Structures are given as C-alpha cells and as structure tokens.
Amino acid sequence: MRKKIVAGNWKMNKTPKEAMELVAMLKDKVDTDNVDVVFCVPAINILPVVDALKGTNIAVGAQNVYFEESGAYTGEISPAMLEEAGVKYVVVGHSERREYFAETDETVNKKVKKILEHNMTPIMCCGETLEQRELGIEIEFIRTQVKCGLAGLSAEEAQKVVIAYEPIWAIGTGKTATSQQAEEICAAIRQVIKELYGDKTAEVIRIQYGGSVNGKNAAELFAMENIDGGLVGGASLKEEFAQIVNY
Ligand code: PGA
Predict the structure, then answer these.
(1) Any idea what the CATH number is for the domain that residue 86 is in?
(2) Which of 3, 24, 80, 96 has the most CB atoms around it within 10 Å of its CB?
(3) pLDDT in tens, 157-212
(4) DSSP letter for each residue of 176-216
(5) Pocket residue to mutate for ligand 1, from 9, 125, 175, 221, most atoms within 8 A of Cβ
(6) How many domains does the chain have?
(7) Closest by alpha carbon to 56, among 84, 33, 90, 22?
(8) What is d(CA 150, CA 156) in angstroms, rounded to the nearest whole number?
(9) For residue 34, what are the CA distances in angstroms to 58, 97, 196?
C-alpha cells in the first residue's frame, strides 16, 4: 500500500514573515499520520520554515536545485546546501521552470540524480500542453518525459522518486483534469515504470496529480487507483490546504 503524499508548491509567494504566518496557521491543522505532507517553499524561506516545523512530521521541500556540487554558478543553490538546511524533497522539472527557465529533460535528469545522491526525494514533474492533448499525443509525450527524467537510475533509486503529473492546461487555471483523465495518465506513467523497472518498482513508486487541486476535488482525485496524492499550488497558500491533506 502506497502512502499518500500531498505537497504544497508555494511557488514565488510569501516573504519570510508571511511564511511564518502561513506555517503557524497550517501546522496543527494537517493530519500527518496517514499522509506525507510537504511544504515546498521559496529558497529564502527554507531555514526559518525548517525551524518552525521542528517537532512536527511536516517535511520541507525546495522548488529547484542546481546539479553541480559547488563553484562559479552565480545565483544557484547546491544540493549539499539544501540537504544541510534540512530539505527532504525537491521539485524538479515543473512546467513553469521548463517554460520560463529553460529546464530540459536533460537537466531534470541531472538534478534527479543529484537530489538522490544527497538523500533527498525528487518530486519530478511531467505534463502535456493543451495542444498536445488535442493532438492526442499526451501519453507519448509524458512517457518520454518520464523516461528521460529517470534515465540511468537503478530500480532502487527510481522507487524513491515521486512523480507529479501536472497537465499544463490545468495549472493555476481552475480547470482541473477529471479524475478519469488524471487516472488515465497516472496509470500510463505506472505502465512506463513497469516497462523500465518491473512490477515491484511500478507498485511502490508514488505518482501525484497536480493542477487546480482544491478542497472539493481532492478526495475524488486521490481515491483513484494510481493517484497517490497531489502537488498543490494556489490552494497550498490557504487554510484549504489542510482540507486537501485531510481529504
Ligand atoms: P495549481 O498549481 O494548484 O495552482 O494549479 C499546481 C502546480 O503548479 O504545482
């Protein structure tokens, strides 16, 4: 039985002071007994949020990392820095990073490997555009994203990765995929994992759905056989996030 995982992706929201307020509001409201809960916060908020969450089972995630250990990479943050700061999860390959910050399948793969090397869990995002869906090539596209992102990983390593299926047309639009649409793709992702790594890995790897998840639709989405929780953007900044976690 896979444990559900619900991660809030705060994106570029909340100053350090506002982050403290949000954590204080949410931390006692989310049930961490049955669900792994993660707050993926802006880099500048990582240290204070780790501190504020001490004594809880809520994990802190980063939204990005660089794939080199150290050196002349102005503005970047290394995996060792995140690890030492207490980060447990790192979002990688979010469609916003692919679109605005030139993230590619190749850099996603390099980052996934580095994150694992540093004992953190990658939340590796994939998802199609509306155009790809209309052309009927969404499954083919996502299969390629998943294969490229996991390239070179052993089955044991792949089992640690969390995959987030986020159709781009559903992100921040209020237009959630139906639970059937989301389930179809998450099942297809599990099928690729099976082809690559066999039954056991396909059985244990966790696959989230993301894209306008809210307090109303979470229960139905998370009840689907192949959906093991969610990656939540907008609704993770509100009290509603507790409702999603406690679905
Ligand atoms: P949304 O974002 O929940 O605001 O649609 C999801 C995400 O981008 O992770």
Answers:
(1) 3.20.20.70
(2) 96
(3) 999 999 999 999 999 898 889 999 999 999 999 999 999 999 999 999 999 999 99
(4) PPPHHHHHHHHHHHHHHHHHHH-HHHHHH-EEEEESS--TT
(5) 9
(6) 1
(7) 33
(8) 12
(9) 12, 31, 29
Ligand 1 near 9 CB (within 6 A): yes
For residue 174, give the ligand 1 atom closest to its CA: 5
Q: Measured from the CB, is residue 212 less than 6 Å from ligand 1?
A: yes
Protein residue with least CA distance to atom 9, ligand 1: 233
- What is the domain extent for residue 76? 4-245
Tell how far the Cα of 198 is from the centroid of ligand 1, in angstroms: 30
Residue with tokens 């998943």: 146
Mean pLDDT of the chain: 97
Pocket test for ligand 1, best of 11, 232, 238, 245 (most atoms within 8 A of CB): 232
| The pLDDT of residue 139 | 98
